[in-house]
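Example 665.
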Amino acid sequence: MTTWPTDLPGLGWGADYNPEQWPEHVWAEDVELMRRAGVNLVSVGIFSWAKIEVSKGEYRFGWLDRVLDLLHEGGIRVDLATATAAPPPWLTTEYPEMLPVRADGVRLSHGSRQAYCPSSPIYRDRATALAAEMATHYRDHPALAAWHVGNEYGCHVNRCYCDTCAESFREWLAARYTLDQLNDAWSTAFWSQGYTDFAQVLPPRVTPTFANPAHVLDFDRFSDDALLELYKAERDVLRMITPDVPVTTNFMVNWTFNALDYWKWAREVDFVSNDHYTESQSPDRHIELAMSADLTRGLAGGKPWLLMEHSTSAVNWQHRNIAKLPGEMRRHSFQHIARGADGTLFFQWRQSRGGSERYHSAMVPHAGTDTKVYREVCQVGAEYGRLAEVVGSTVDAPVAILFDYRSGWALRQDAHPTADFDHWQHVLGYYKALWHAGVTVDFVAPGTNLSAYSLVVVPAFYTVSDAHAAVVADYVAGGGHVVVTYLSGVADEHTRVRLGGYPGAFRDVLGACSEEFFPLRQGETVTLTDGSTCSLWTEHLHLRGAEVVASYADGPLPGVAAVTRNAFGNGVAWYIACDLDEEGLGRTVGSALSGAGVAVSPKGVEHRGIELVRRHGDVSWLFAVNHTDTDAQIEASGVDVLSGTKVSGRLTVRAGDVVVLREEV
Ligand code: GAL
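Predicted structure in complex with beta-D-galactopyranose:
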């Protein structure tokens, strides 16, 4: 099986290319400018359905043939879309029942994109028919390097509440439960919700007040599966017709999206690809980027992955769309490469003139090529050209974060002890502490064997099966170190609370147990005995063998343990029962790291904001990214691959700069 875009020379570099937005005379110039920028891979046709299938079964490939021929002549490989991401108006007009329906019953209209119900048999038939046409037509085209199925499944429509979905949901449930099991798993004795026939079960549409949490969680799982089935249907068609062309679909592993369980999706793609956009207002946006890259590498099972989209500068969909400063796009690109990507592409090649994304940056801006953006694009393209030697190398990490999508789904539901909790931001808080400590992190799925890691962070692992809880306990018993954070282990896989004291799934391994949650008021902070503070969350914890690391000095629970440490078997389990401030979290994570024997703060690095990551192959490459406005010195020796200079002992990484050092051993 082919697991990477074929015949790609070195690191992938390019963009979504949407030539259908431009008159044909622009295309030759596009290819010429791509060559100047070192572009070697573009995604084509993602939103071209209306131009390819102009009416039912009537396909027009001529224009796309000419585009692919031009790209091929220019030496540019093509990640060809199946073009199914945005059904054309002729299709939704003929079959309005394929349009998605919101929880409040409103059927959405065409006029933007992704206007289809994930369970619609019509969409599925037409999409697989188009994928088959595309594959048959382009199977022998020399530019074809990979297939790009759909686009960001679930980006806009990830839950649909129509009657077709209701029917599919019932089938999904009936395949997993008897009626009795369903009533039990969903705790339907509460509020008189008992079902006597599957036909009575609906998608969780708008109800007078809170919906049933287990019902909502199962609908989340069902909806995820429905989208995955759509992807697989297209993929299987492609695999049949072009068995040697790898297939992917671009994930959204980032702060904006939490609708799909990518651990499951990752098993179904030939290579993992991801889209990442920074939160432009956040001063720590590069750290969130690093977390997304590490999680994507985890999804890829440690193998190289492709950044399918990011932005050269501003996006168009945030409240304030802040442009990137000179050097920022370059740093972002290299961060992804440092963390295991073997290529980075942008949305998009040429900035649109019309349409809702006309203020979104691109590789060629509205102002043309004499611009900061295009110059930087050419610079990075040339630098990537010198970095082919890192292709295929991997990243090692001593620490893992256990990341669970379902816990994120469950915790965003209503009627929890606080509505202030955000799963991604919570994980990010721990990731930041590790990033500042200079520790490289892997992400792992629930149930993963953890023995390769010196320390594992288990943040808000809320809905936990007995089997997954046992994996964590066995790891600690065998000598592992864990940091478990509040809201972990509270519920079973149907969001039913585990009785006998929180966190039910982990109280033995933690040697501690809470009798009551004490979330804090907005703006309220509590001081801890070690001088740190916490906000958002505290709980009434009792010791059952653990030692106290810090307790509350004030607030609703003075004297109660807030951070504990427990010797369990041959290992150690920390419990952080409150939402620590950045400094306290850094200190506690630092103690856990040193207790687990993990080296922090690489030698010679005195500044916060210097990112150091290694890729390993036959040799190792140190990627040093300076996010600060002062020069940094680090101890290192080798050859600076970008400049060719030799470095002996002391490496200067200039303010805002990136260095890739082939290290001497
Ligand atoms: C992605 C999408 C692209 C483009 C981009 C803008 O979500 O895949 O087509 O819309 O966002 O940032």
